Amino acid sequence: MTIDKTPAAEETRFAALRAKLRKLYHGRTRAALRFQLAVTVVDLAAIVFFIASPMLRDRPSFLWIDYTVAAILGIDIAARALASSDIGRWFRQPTIWVDLLVLVTLLFPQTLANLGFLRILRLWTLSRSGVLWGPLERNGYGEWRETVHAVMNLLTFLFVVTGFVYTFFFNEGSGVVGYVDAFYFTVATVTTTGFGDIVLPGTWGKLTAIVTMIVGISLFVRLAQAIFRPAKVFFPCPQCALQRHEMDAVYCKACGHMLKIPDDSD
């Protein structure tokens, strides 16, 4: 049996691969949903590793885990690119650039050790992933999108700042105790509690605290708005593409186009 290696056959196999990946990443079949759930679980496990990685750098198994996660993330990025109907448009998305940055820090863990805390940004990209939100929206949880985004933004900021503080202001090898101190400082600063028992030294320490307080307060306000303001549904307006509308809206408030928002109350 001979395998056809002509350009037309290769192109056909490549198109079939893209179609299969598109079904897995964006489909609604039972197999696709299982695949999307598995991808989300693997992402969450990787994020746990990213959070703990500043404390694990000296462990013998760190590099093995690091390169394993890099391989998985690289395959996922390539697969999502192939699953996209427009790779150019997909590549221009900010979440893709963040994922590529995370991948670079994983591929060069020793050279870019001081930038390892940026890996937590993967939590932000996960919260905006269609693989995560596709099944949730189909099951009626789409109205929680803005609240979840606000929570994820705050958590991402807390862990990124914690990793930054631990990396640049605490002694290497301080382990869990040092990381907890860094996290404690971050939370106390973001909430403007200001106990003062842990203070970052020098001018850079003061500037870090100032930026943490300003951004942290803004994220808290955003979270409060997402929780307490009236609920809205996500339904793109066919005319102007406005995403959020009141649940009982008949016309788009931006352009006046008539909407036909599905009623899932029955």
Automatic annotation (TrEMBL):
Q: What domain of life does the UniProt record list for this protein's source?
A: Bacteria
UniProt keyword annotation of Zinc present: no
Where's it found, cell-wise? Membrane
Q: Name one GO biological process term.
A: monoatomic ion transmembrane transport
Transmembrane feature ranges = 31-52, 64-83, 95-118, 150-170, 182-201, 207-224
Membrane disposition: Multi-pass membrane protein
What positions does the domain Potassium channel occupy?
Answer: 156-228
Q: Which InterPro entries match?
A: K_chnl_dom, K_chnl_Slo-like, K_chnl_volt-dep_EAG/ELK/ERG
Protein known as: Potassium channel family protein
Annotated organism of origin: Neoaquamicrobium sediminum
